[in-house]
Amino acid sequence: MSRLGDLILLERTRQKLSPKQVARKCGISEKYLLEVESGKRIIQDDQARRILRTIGLREQTEADFSLDEIAATVDLEMIKTQPEKAREVHAPSPAPSAVKVASSQPGESASAASGIWLDALGGVLKAVPVMNAAWQNVARRLLPIQNGRIEGANPDKVLYFLAPDDSMRGFRVLAGDFVLIVPAQSPVDEAIMLVEYKNHRALRKVKKLDATRVLLQSYGREYGADTLEAADVNFIGRAVRLEANL
Fold first, then answer.
1. Model pLDDT, residue 72
2. Contact yes or no for 201/135 (Cβ under 8 A)
3. Between residues 183 and 88, which one has the greater pLDDT?
4. What is the pLDDT of residue 119?
5. Does residue 70 contact residue 126 with C-beta atoms inside 8 Å?
6. pLDDT confidence tier of residue 62, bands split at 50, 70 and 90
7. Second-level CATH architecture of 127-243
8. Structure pTM?
9. CATH of span 3-121
10. Which residues in the chain belong to E strands, given as ranges?
11. How many Å separate Cα 237 from the centre of its chain?
């Protein structure tokens, strides 16, 4: 399935245009357009953008994100309507618990789906940095901003931490997993947090022992724990989402 083809179909459906109408507007064959929309033919980013502009998509965020990056945030699944196919769309999030947007009324699914996508194009995507244990920016991942926040936090303050090892395997965090971190400068009891102590950064499960001491727990091949004064630990943030690589 082609994500760019999905987006073209989504916008065409929103504009209530037939494949023949779009093909005529764009100077391409109807067969070619349908093959792109069904994923049978690969289309380049610039050509997809030309088609989308021609059928009425306004230019947005091109300086920051490629169309392919934006498409990667929208998970589309085929649903069938009469007389043509429409889409059921998941809210743009790579997390396993994506929220579905659907409607029981004909035509509303495509409209709601398009609203989510166009919101993303309208500047509510944030390129969140991926930091490794050496605090180097090794990648970025796009996340939607909702009501000016990401997971309730300032979008400029959230980050992904690339798990460096299997020291948190017992808590279902493996080496190479992406862990979304929101800022928290004090210990959160029973939360997995990104902390800095003993001259290294790591994910640890935090248990507050009393007003001044915390237990930092790991669980790799065996359970481990360090009892420390909270003042000796730099609490960077709380883990709110895990994205595992298959």
1. 54
2. yes
3. 183
4. 47
5. no
6. very low
7. Ribbon (2.10)
8. 0.55
9. 1.10.260.40
10. 75-80, 85-90, 100-101, 125-131, 137-144, 159-162, 178-183, 192-197, 200-208, 213-219, 223-229, 234-243
11. 19
